[in-house]
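Box S2. Input/output pair 1.
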Amino acid sequence: MPTDQIATYREFVRLHTQLADEAARYKNEIQALLVVLFPEFSQVFADPCRSTAVALLKLYPSAQALAAAGVETIAAKLHELAPHNYGHKTAQQLVSLAQQSVSSGLAIAARSISLKILCDQLEHTQTNLAQLESEIDKLLTADNRAKGLQSVPEFGHKTVAVLRAELGDVSRFHRADQVVAYAGLDLEVKESGKWKGQAKLSKRGSGRLRRILYMAAVRCIRLKDSAFGAYYHRLVARGMKGREAMMAVMRKMLIVAYRLLKTEELYDPAKVGAVLVTQPLVVNAI
């Protein structure tokens, strides 16, 4: 059974994942509606789902609505929403684009209502996400075992929280390869008779853990001073395929996280290359 602390991590992390997925879905639907309601909107707001753009779309959810409002009204609203970023010039550009928009005239009223509701849902979801992230930060601050994980530059707060939630009490693992297998990052080969398949990840265990490690691995290979990134590029230089090297980095990160939690030490990037990444191989008969 998880401790109260681990159970709290799991509750927060799983709700955060759910809300983040909902926010992503709302953003996709907003952008899809804008294609027919005001496709030129992105010429002014490269990200139509940023807070100022969403607040404006709630009031004027179509090219026709923006054009009817006029420059002065839009300028006043932009000044109210973001006085240091947008002004009269932005309002002029928006209204001009709205007047010449190639937007579809089909079901404007219904689609405008849909856009308003989606923008409202996105705002509420993002507010709840911010509140939840604040609670996660408080939990991490009070968690001495998380200090080692937080000392890893490549691990953000969400990554640390997921590692704490999904790994739980690491004392139940006696070897690093057990942690690798627990996360589903071990390799397995399926075979039947004389046929033998390729070695692939078993993908057992926590999908959340694999997902957060993948995201952390993607970030680190782009960082100039990342020990994990350097490890990835060494593997690729030796001839390993990019995908395989990425999986190796994920295993490396997982083992480092396990060692830090078990020893309660702080992260030392110099030791990353010295950590062995074992890959237990399981053969499954079909």
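Box S3. Input/output pair 2.
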Amino acid sequence: MIKIIPINYIEIDEKIDEIRKLDEVMVGRYIEKYESGTSKPILVKRIGRDKYILVDGKHRLKACKNLKRNKIDCELFDGDDIYSKAVEMNQEHGIPLTKEEEETVLINLFEMGKTQEEIAKIFHIGQSAIAMRIKRNPMLTKSLCDKTNISSVNEIINGKKHEEVANIYGLSRSRITQIWNDWLNELTNNYNNGSTKQEIVEQESEKGIKLTLEKLNELIEEDYNKLIIGDCLKEIPKLNNEIIDCLIIDPPYGQDYQSHHRNNKFKKIKYDNQKAFDLLDNSLKLIKPKLNKNSHIYIFTSWKVIEKVKPIIEKYFDIKNCLVWDKVNPGMGDTVGGNYGEQYELIIFAKQGNKKLVVDKRPINILSFRKVTEGLMKHPTQKPIELIKELINNSTKENELVVDYFAGSCSTLTAAKELNRRWLGIELNEVK
């Protein structure tokens, strides 16, 4: 689309201005073309209401200014990389850059993180030709020595070997290896200091490094098979996206539970009140992107609060069933009021995506497993490992990742470990 734009709206970027020096002879030729009505529009990028950056057409713009014209025909560029486009357009004009101009352009492109292949496309020549220009120009090679970190890393990310990259930039193989290792150490330190992988990818992108989440996962393996002591609302965001195959949690039920075991006098569970529902809601919101697109979720709860818990889970996942855990040996219950003994708890089974159960025979939704006996309890709401194994076997295969961010006595983690699954737990307080 051609647009007539006031000349005083158009600015010339300093780096683009350096691509080619102004040639007064060429300006004169364009004056003749404008007077005869045969000149082509210049190329600009709009960056504000009345502000444009010149991409191509410096000599034409100067010709119009010499003719005392106030406006000029422009074509709008809708891309983001205006410098590369400016270089490419200059190449298309067929007038070669001087040795100094070419050197400046190559250094700028390398500093922007462009690979040899990308630069070759901009210059409309082969990759080998770019490599030869670097090798036969000692001054250019020297100038690039301290400016190729980003482009070297991009070359290796794209699959080139260290020796190949060294040949491209006229550097030693050991220097390229050092650049790569320094960069990799920086990534690892950022990750170990709390940056999420997504944050690292975004940070590197701002530098011009073309790092993908998939590639980062190859470079930095997740540290699984561990228990993290901390607040789940702070620790969950640090996990990578789409890594969890099965989530099994036993959150506070929100009923102010107090254990009355004669032998085990546990303290009241933190947040086991109205705050429990906010905690569940906030944690599910955070964990949702961390789950694989096709994954299973198991959430323990009580019939006393299910009408509050179910709508929270439905905000994030597709509820498929409500499992009944038959404890076999009933609890004490409310003996003072003469109530029935409590012999079951509920487990809400939900899905993200369309993950299938992995068992041959369809399981029923009543699971009979004896509860943990008093003498073996480390946590007031401890679940039997065999029960958790049943859920894990039904929903995962070996080496898939099981996560429990209300880890408690670590029954889920123990079950996952014994079944050769990867596991990761988060618990606010360390259980002795």
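Caption for Box S3: The chain has a mean pLDDT of 86. The longest strand covers residues 291-301.
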